[in-house]
Please model this.
Amino acid sequence: MTLSTSGTRLTAKGMATRARIVDAASDLMLERGVARTTIEDIQETAGVSASQLYHYFTDKNDLVLAVIDHQSDLVLGIHQESLDRLDSFAALEVWRDKVIDVVRATHCAGGCPLGSLASDLAETDPIARARLARAFGLWEELLRVGLAAMRERGELRPDTPTDDLALAMLAGLQGGLLLSQIRRDTQPIEVAIDTAIAHLRTMRP
Amino acid sequence: MTLSTSGTRLTAKGMATRARIVDAASDLMLERGVARTTIEDIQETAGVSASQLYHYFTDKNDLVLAVIDHQSDLVLGIHQESLDRLDSFAALEVWRDKVIDVVRATHCAGGCPLGSLASDLAETDPIARARLARAFGLWEELLRVGLAAMRERGELRPDTPTDDLALAMLAGLQGGLLLSQIRRDTQPIEVAIDTAIAHLRTMRP
DNA sequence: GAAAAAATGGAGTGTCAACTCCAAAACTGG
DNA sequence: CCAGTTTTGGAGTTGACACTCCATTTTTTC
Model:
């Protein structure tokens, strides 16, 4: 999974410390962005010393990559769970509700963890950009496979362009999350997903 | 328009200098984000001294607000021009091509100026968030009015939920721009807009 | 054309943030 | 239980960055 730290073997305790650091960094970077999150903030939140942090990560950049991997695992995990057996419109609605519950739970703060990191790092860190592109590729694939399965099951017409719809759905999701974040209102993400599903409904046989 | 600097009257020369500063700051902040853009960078790019910068803006935050206003004017200007007489699907396609030309011209770098600022500032600067929310509101309104006009003209069925479609379109646009930015490929934004238009086409009388 | 206001130059200042270093404590494997 | 390895503590150090200050030049106003 994580290929950043190599060479030194990690004790159970060490793994726990490392995880605490990544957790703290993930939370803070989602809230404030990468550049505004200081190493000292992370130290305090995670309850570790400077030497510990630099024992597990070569520098802040290295930590950022670990945060990307961590958030990718979390986000893709949530969506994989819901989309794995995407075989009906009912299942799609369950996914929809789950996404919106998450947004509501955070009161629209932070936006999408991957989207925020992407916007933050796209132009300043090529390695981070590539890794985020990969994560979004996997996410898109999840939607692609799900919609293709729906088509196979006869829920959608055979000529439905599921690949395009999957990409458009991901775009709508990202944009909806961003708009919900700045408006502090779940309406945009709700409308974005519902409209995507409505479009899908026009493609039933 | 700009309500940040008040009290002192501006000479023509002063206005030019101020504009040079805002232009430079806008470019740099779009490329690197707000926190990674230093005052010194802006000074060099704009060709001004520190005292000039602090003569026109009380602090970096104040400059950020000016950048938001500037980018809002630019972005909304571009879209207003295209959407003003949105009375047919042909006009919608013209708008689509224009948007994608802009993205292609920048080689997908930077993403949407407003979207990037929004993601950057949403959680750290409440005033900036409010102002960006307002800009997105105006943008949404542009689309709302355009689609409503299309419906009035009989291009769309009377029961078409143009308000929802406008919001979903803006979301798809934002998400598509973000995905195009991290993939360095215009495909996501193209598919996002085209899918939105395709959905609209299903609503013709 | 002179007083007032605005625009500019550029050196300086205090703070903060990333990263280093050396030593000590805790743990692991044989 | 001991040698080697991993983990931890915490006080520096270096550089960068936002912002200040005061003097000087340019422009406006009457």
